[in-house]
């Protein structure tokens, strides 16, 4: 059966562990300036983008190149998808050309439809409800900062301050697979999707919700946020700015976190909205390491899906 990576829960704990450890190995090679195995020689991958992207595109394109695969970037509006070709037909056609497709789109159903009609692995490069690739980089970053190997993040306390969006949902699923204790502080009406949250809770995830950022951040080892209006929500920006008042991660809030706490943000960031310049450019910020780790974790995802699941 073809494996896909549409949400973090498509991974077992063992597979997550393998991906994080493999990413660390590949990162070490690159850091030393040594070439690593070109394990995907002869493979081609498509990166199909219906929303804009900087990091996801760059990291998958370079990851494929460095592993010996050929990456083809397709901008959705320049494809027949923009003229109404069904995503199901696109899937059946892509199967014949490439060995894997990374898809960034709006509704998660489009991603599921692509996967359903695909005999090759489909990777979620971000949908309205999930951003699993981001979480792999975030978990690798936390592991590096707190000296935890692989998926052993038991007991790390994470505070999410902001919108209950796609990245927040993937954090909730990360709490299922790792031992992290996640508290989400979201304004009223902007919490996470209840069915994603309840599913995670039913699987034993330690996740709490609050409307008070101070409560969430108190004693946290990791403070994380994201934009207040995600791609596709541009028309809501004005109302969201009012609703998210008091949710800016500033130095005052950060001072409530654990003394060795780090700050993460998937980027792009809006300085002065969800985070102040002082925090994102300050000593606790690990956002650039986090962005770099996208490259190393994408390599591990590609190897996992194209060379067979490893545990
Ligand atoms: N974090 C992230 O996915 O960035 P891009 O939107 O630039 O790909
Ligand atoms: N929540 C953001 C993440 C961007 C990487 C968005 O969907 O726009």
Structure description:
The chain is of the alpha/beta class and 311 residues long. It folds into 2 domains: 8-131 and 294-307, 3-Layer(aba) Sandwich (Rossmann fold); 134-290, Aspartate/ornithine carbamoyltransferase (Rossmann fold, 3-Layer(aba) Sandwich), CATH 3.40.50.1370. 41% of the residues lie in helices and 14% in strands. The chain has 12 helices and 9 strands. It has helices at residues 13-32, 55-66, 87-97, 108-116, 132-145, 166-177, 194-202, 213-217, 237-243, 251-254, 277-280, 287-307; strands at residues 44-49, 70-75, 100-104, 122-124, 157-161, 181-185, 206-210, 222-225, 262-265. The strands form 2 sheets. The chain has a 5-stranded parallel sheet. Strands 2-1-3-4 form a 4-stranded parallel sheet, sandwiched between helices. Helix 6 (166-177) links the parallel strand 5 and strand 6 (181-185). Helix 5 crosses helix 12. The chain is globular, with a radius of gyration of 19 Å. The mean pLDDT is 97. Norvaline (NVA) binds at residues 126, 165-167, 226-227, 230-231, 266.
Task: Pick out its properties.
311 residues; alpha/beta; Rossmann fold; 2 domains; five-stranded parallel sheet; four-stranded parallel sheet; 12 helices; 41% helix; globular; binds phosphoric acid mono(formamide)ester; binds norvaline
């Amino acid at each position: 059966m073809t494996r896909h990576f549409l949400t973090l829960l498509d991974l077992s704990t063992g597979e997550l562990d393998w991906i994080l450890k493999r990413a660390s190995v590949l990162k070490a090679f690159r850091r030393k300036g040594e070439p690593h195995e070109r394990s995907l020689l002869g493979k081609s991958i498509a990166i199909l983008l219906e929303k804009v992207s900087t990091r996801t595109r760059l990291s998958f394109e370079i990851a494929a190149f460095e592993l010996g695969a050929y990456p083809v970037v397709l901008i959705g509006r320049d494809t027949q998808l923009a003229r109404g070709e069904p995503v199901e037909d696109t899937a059946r056609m892509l199967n014949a050309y490439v060995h894997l497709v990374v898809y960034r789109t709006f509704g998660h159903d489009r991603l599921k439809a692509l996967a359903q009609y695909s005999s090759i692995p489909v990777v979620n490069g971000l949908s309205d409800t999930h951003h699993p690739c981001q979480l792999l980089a975030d978990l690798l970053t936390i592991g590096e900062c707190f000296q935890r190997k692989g998926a052993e993040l038991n007991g790390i306390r994470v505070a999410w301050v902001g919108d209950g969006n796609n990245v927040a949902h993937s954090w909730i699923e990360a709490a299922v697979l790792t031992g992290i204790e996640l508290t989400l502080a979201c304004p009223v009406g902007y919490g996470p999707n209840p069915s994603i949250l309840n599913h995670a809770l039913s699987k034993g995830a330690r996740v709490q919700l609050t409307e008070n950022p101070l409560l969430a951040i108190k004693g946290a080892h990791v403070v994380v946020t994201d934009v207040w209006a995600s791609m596709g929500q541009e028309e809501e920006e004005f109302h969201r700015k009012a609703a998210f008042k008091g949710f800016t991660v500033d130095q005052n809030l950060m001072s409530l976190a654990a003394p060795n706490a780090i700050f993460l943000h998937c980027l792009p960031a809006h300085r002065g909205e969800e985070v102040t310049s002082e925090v994102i450019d300050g000593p606790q910020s690990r956002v650039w390491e986090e962005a770099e780790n996208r490259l190393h974790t994408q390599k591990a995802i590609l190897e996992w899906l194209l060379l067979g699941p490893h545990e």
